[in-house]
């Protein structure tokens, strides 16, 4: 336990910027986000035509201004933002962060997410738009094995770069859910229903607050919707959602 904590601190103070955080190739210190040129170029950045509701990159054969998923589901959150379309490069980063105990990657992801928002808004606009960052909570057993909530780490670095205040965890999982992989969108929603609650102390500042929910990946938006529902029920005035990566815009059969 002690060794793990020391390793974690060392990683946060000396992030592995000599190696690309995505592919592991040696890089020099000046590379932005700790990524090599090849990974920077090959990451599918969400620029161009974006879904006006959830912010994901629209498919080339989708002529509308919303993605197929947003046309099928009325989301609870107000507006979504994302940085990339989920693919092999961002998956490598998210997996290393979640499963290889490499929390330093959260800094890179947090900076990318901050720059995504700062490419559209000034720091002043962000400060007047959001009162509260809400990291998506992880299941308690995963928290116990991993030792950190990756979304909370990302939110902390995001806060550093945007100047938005970070108040720590706002929500908790109150029901353990089965793994979401392989479930249909409707099954994901049922699986998540009633699984999030506010942390007691958050009740003092949620009323009337404009919230930005932070997570690494958005797939169907079921998690975002469940959390937005709880925040609105507790008096939030606005709930937006920001993810590092979002699933591709495809028609679900
Ligand atoms: Zn690379
Ligand atoms: Zn959408």
Topology:
Layout: H1 2-13, H2 37-42, H3 68-72, E1 80-85, H4 88-99, H5 105-118, H6 123-129, E2 132-135, H7 140-146, H8 150-162, E3 171-173, H9 185-192, E4 196-198, H10 203-206, E5 210-218, H11 222-233, E6 238-246
Parallel strand pairs: 1-6, 2-5, 5-6
Antiparallel strand pairs: 3-4
Helix pairs in contact: 5-8
This protein binds zinc ion (2 copies).
List keywords for this structure.
single chain; alpha/beta; Rossmann fold; 11 helices; globular; binds zinc ion
Structure in words:
It is a single chain. It contains 11 helices and 6 strands. With 253 residues, the chain is of the alpha/beta class. It has one domain (43-246): Rossmann fold. The strands form 2 sheets. The protein has a 4-stranded parallel beta sheet with strand order 1-6-5-2. Strands 3-4 form a two-stranded antiparallel ribbon. α5 packs across α8 (150-162). The longest helix has 14 residues, at 105-118. The protein is globular and about 45 Å long. Residues 12-17 have low confidence and may be disordered.
Give the terminus-to-terminus CA distance: 46 Å
**C-alpha-based Rg, rounded:** 18 Å
Low-confidence stretches: 12-17
What is the arithmetic mean of pLDDT? 87
Domain count: the total is 1
Major β-sheet strand ordering: 1-6-5-2
Structural class: alpha/beta
Structure, briefly:
The chain is α/β, with parallel strands linked by helices and 253 residues long. The chain has helices at residues 2-13, 37-42, 68-72, 88-99, 105-118, 123-129, 140-146, 150-162, 185-192, 203-206, 222-233, and strands spanning 80-85, 132-135, 171-173, 196-198, 210-218, 238-246. It has eleven helices and six strands.
